[in-house]
Each structure stands twice: as structure tokens, then as C-alpha cells.
Amino acid sequence: LWKCVKHEAGKPVLVTEYGCPAYSTLHTEEEAEQMQAEYLKECWLDIVANSNGFGEGNALGSVLFEWVDEWWKAYEPYMHDKKGQWAGPFPDGWMYEEWLGITSQGSGKNSPFERVLRKAYYTYKELWRR
Description:
By secondary structure, the chain is an alpha+beta fold. Helix content is 30%, strand content 15%. The chain has helices at 2-8, 29-49, 119-129, and strands at residues 13-18, 59-64, 86-87, 94-95, 103-104, 116-117. It has a two-stranded parallel sheet with strand order 1-2. Strands 3-4 form a two-stranded antiparallel ribbon. A two-stranded antiparallel sheet has the order 5-6. Strand 3 (86-87) and strand 4 form a beta hairpin. Helix 2 (29-49) runs parallel beside helix 3. The protein is elongated, with a radius of gyration of 16 Å. It starts with a helix and ends with a helix.
């Protein structure tokens, strides 16, 4: 991406939305959460590696999608849906639109007010301190 945009368009890049679901039908919830953290970490490192003075030097930054799970997005607004919406480069090959948050709403009992921090949150906390 960085090289193509730099050499073909001569433009900087701002990634306006990136994320990974913390759910997978092929993994436990803990494994899927760890995979989300690793995916997001690699995205962050790739962006930093291509920022000014590094790599292609045309990465301006990015916006994480999403801060908290959005239960209302897929099917039933009061359930944390586990139906894949479309294929993609994610832990089990499917996008789970309601599972993109680096925080969850727990069981939903205290929604929309409860925030449960996921592994990805702590990964970002560590990366930010570097």
C-alpha cells in the first residue's frame, strides 16, 4: 500500500478505519481476543514503520475502529450477535461487525455503560508508551 501510493500517486496515506473482531468460531474467546490484539499491533507497527523518516515515509496515521463493541449493528440490537457478515482477513476468515471494540460491554446486563478492557486495549497502552 505505502509503496504503491507513494510511487503512483505521490500522496501521503491516512488510514481512516482499521480493526479486527475479537470473536471467531474456530477459537476460544480468549484466543480470538489475543488474535485481535496481535492483528491490531501489527497494523500499528506497519503504520509507524512507514511514517515520516521510516520505510516509504508517507503514513500520516490511522484511526482505530472500534473503541467499544456495537451490539446494534448486525441483527438483534440487544444481543451480541455471532453471525459472520462477510469474508475477510480475520482469525476465522469472517467479519463480526459487533465484536470490533478494544472494550466490550461484558454480558450486556449493564449496557450501554459497562466497559470491559480487552487484551488489545493493553497492547495499545504498551505501544503508546514506547
